[in-house]
Amino acid sequence: MTPSPALALVTGASxxxxxxxxxxxxxxxxxxxxVARSAERLQALAQELQARHGVPVHVLPADLAQPGAAGRLTxxxxxxxxxxxxxxxxxxxxxxxEFLQQTPEAISGLIALNITALTELTRLLAPHMVAQxxxxxLNVASTAAFQPGxxxxxxxxxxxxxxxxxxxxxxxxxxxxxSVTALCPGPxxxxxxxxxxxxxxxxxxxxVRLAMLSAEQVARAGIEAMLRGQxxxxxxxxxxxxxxxLRLLPRAVVPPxxxxxxxxxxx
Length: 267
Prior knowledge:
Elements: E1 8-11, H1 16-27, E2 32-35, H2 39-53, E3 57-59, H3 69-79, E4 86-89, H4 104-132, E5 135-140, H5 153-173, E6 178-183, H6 192-196, H7 207-211, H8 215-228, E7 232-233, H9 237-248, H10 254-262
Parallel strand pairs: 1-2, 1-4, 2-3, 4-5, 5-6, 6-7
Helix pairs in contact: 1-2, 1-8, 3-4, 4-5
C-alpha cells in the first residue's frame, strides 16, 4: 500500500468476490467505502471490518444499474469529503439462456451494471487520482472476456468490453501514476451461478468444477496484481492454460465449442 493508506471504494461488496476484495483491502489497512444494494449486508460487513482491522468503513447502499446512479454516488462521496484513490469495479450480473429468450429489460440491466456503471464511475473518480498522481483501479472482468459465449452472449460481450477498456486505460493513465488492472477469474464458488442460471450448464461440471477457485483466492490474486500495477491477471494455472489454448484455435471453432460447454445438462 502507499505510505498513507488510500481510500478504497468497492462496488458489489455485500457478497462473493466483492466481499473478499473488501476484506483483502481492509487487512492491508485501507479505509473503505462499500457499495451494493443490500444495506443490511454492507452494515454487517462494515462493523466486522472496523472491529477486526481498525479501519474506517463507510456504507453507501446504491443500485448502480439505475440511470445516473454513478453520478449520484460520486456526489454523495464528495459531499462527505471522500475521494477514493482505489476504485474496485466489481458489481456485475449475468444471465444464462438463449439471447431471444431473455427479456430486453434483463439485457439492458446487465449492460447498465456491467458496462455503463463501471465506465461512468471510472470516468468520474479517475480525475482525482490523476491529479494526485497516484491511484489504482481494479475492474472485475472474467475469463469470459477472451471468447464469445453463446447462451450467455451479452455477459461474455460485457466482460470483453471491461477487459478492452481496462487495458486501454492502463496505457492512458500510467504516465499519470495511475494503473488499471483487469481481474479475469474463471468460474468461482459464489452465488453468481444461482443468480445467473449458470448452475445448469455443463461448463461447471467435471474438471472445470475441480479447478474452481474460492472467492478469497480470486480476491487475493486481484488485489496483489492491482498493487503491482499489473494490467491483466487470470487467477489459477488451469484458467491461464485454457485461455492460452483458446488463443491457438481458429476463431470459427470457438463459438460452437463454447455453446456445447454451456449447454444445459438436461436439454
